[in-house]
Amino acid sequence: xxDVLIIGAGPGGMTAAIYTxxxxxxxxMIEKAAPxxxxxxxWEIENYAGVGVVSGFELSDKMFKHTQELGxxxxxxxxxxxxxxxxxxxxxxxxxxxxxxxxVIIASGTVPRSVGAPGEDKFISKGISxxxxxxxxxxxxxxxxxxxxxxSALDEAIYLTTMNVRVTVVNILPDLxxxxxxxxxxxxxxxxxxxxxxxxxxxxxxxxxxxVTIRDVKTKDEKDLDVQGAFIFIGQIPNSDFVKDxxxxxxxxxxxxxxxxxxxxxxxYAIGDxxxxxxxxxxxxAADGSIASQQVSKYIEGLDD
Length: 305
Ligand SMILES: Cc1cc2nc3c(=O)[nH]c(=O)nc-3n(C[C@H](O)[C@H](O)[C@H](O)COP(=O)(O)OP(=O)(O)OC[C@H]3O[C@@H](n4cnc5c(N)ncnc54)[C@H](O)[C@@H]3O)c2cc1C
Known about the structure:
- The strands form five sheets. Strands 1, 2, 5, 6, 7, 8 and 19 form a seven-stranded mixed beta sheet that branches. Strands 10-17-11-12-13 form a five-stranded parallel beta sheet, with helices on one face.
- By secondary structure, it is α/β, with parallel strands linked by helices.
- β12 (166-171), α6 (180-188) and β13 (192-196) form a beta-alpha-beta unit.
- The radius of gyration is 21 Å and the shape is elongated.
- It has helices at residues 11-22, 56-69, 120-123, 132-135, 151-161, 180-188, 282-304, and strands at residues 2-7, 27-31, 44-45, 54-55, 73-76, 79-85, 88-93, 98-106, 110-112, 128-129, 143-147, 166-171, 192-196, 198-205, 209-216, 222-225, 229-232, 236-238, 268-270.
- The protein has seven helices and 19 strands.
- The model has no long low-confidence stretch (mean pLDDT 96).
- The protein has two domains: 2-112 and 236-304, FAD/NAD(P)-binding domain (3-Layer(bba) Sandwich), CATH 3.50.50; 120-232, FAD/NAD(P)-binding domain (3-Layer(bba) Sandwich), CATH 3.50.50.
- Bound molecules: flavin-adenine dinucleotide (FAD).
- Flavin-adenine dinucleotide binds at residues 7-13, 30-33, 37-39, 42, 45, 47-48, 77-79, 107-110, 152, 156, 239, 242, 272-273, 280-283, 285.
- The site of flavin-adenine dinucleotide has 36 residues, from α1, β2, α5 and α7.
């Protein structure tokens, strides 16, 4: 029996673990991939206080070591269900295990949204990728499209050019949504060009991606782009399927949590990208983790009274 089980070891979950361990709560993180969450697929992080410009891998490693130095347990597991059985929470995993705790913090983040165009499923990992850090090197000296116009899309486009990948950024909107500095940096990069107001009509090829047909959203005119890769950064979907029966999600699947990170079910808290919020960043996930941990301490004290 743990005091607290944390689902997901991204920056939110790892920060929560640091706080709960320091509060002398017996803590375990359950993670289905590797510690770091989205940070692991981020090339450089430039906006987390105190670490300057740091690779996503390095920040993940530092945070994970911090949790381990404090004694938080790290369990592998793909969580499929949470049961609230009075004061005991049961966390089920796809591996057939059931872990028990007095409280649970859900920090399961999001997965990248896909385009839904013909050919997409066929070419995932055969030219289509959601992670420039993971797959960018395969496209050295080649031409790819980056789909999206926000910070993630442009940061990743800039990163790809460092590996001598030529990039066409295709965005469905008529402008770019990234912050001004990032837009300027991308526009100054002569390895990047932009096609705005276009969507993907189809991903084309035989065994691997050989081209993409894009469509003007206004005129519906289509044209073919001769590219070998497509990197998709068009938003996220919350990882919350495993709580869909608990009635704590909104219509898009984001978990509803108040400013104390309470979900409405006593003893179940939610933090980071998986909750309804305005800004999904490492620092906001970490902040949520600290707040949830303080509430968990109070909640468990209340149980023990
Ligand atoms: C390409 C890209 C670049 C970014 N760059 C920056 C940046 O420069 N600066 C910044 O501040 N933010 C950046 N962000 C956003 C930032 O990475 C996220 O806001 C942050 O990682 C959210 O943290 P989290 O802990 O809530 O979730 P995540 O980091 O998504 O971690 C969630 C973890 O939960 C695990 N998990 C999910 N479901 C289950 C389950 N059922 N069972 C067990 N484990 C599960 C996942 O495997 C994952 O490890 C970027 C995001 C992207 C996509």
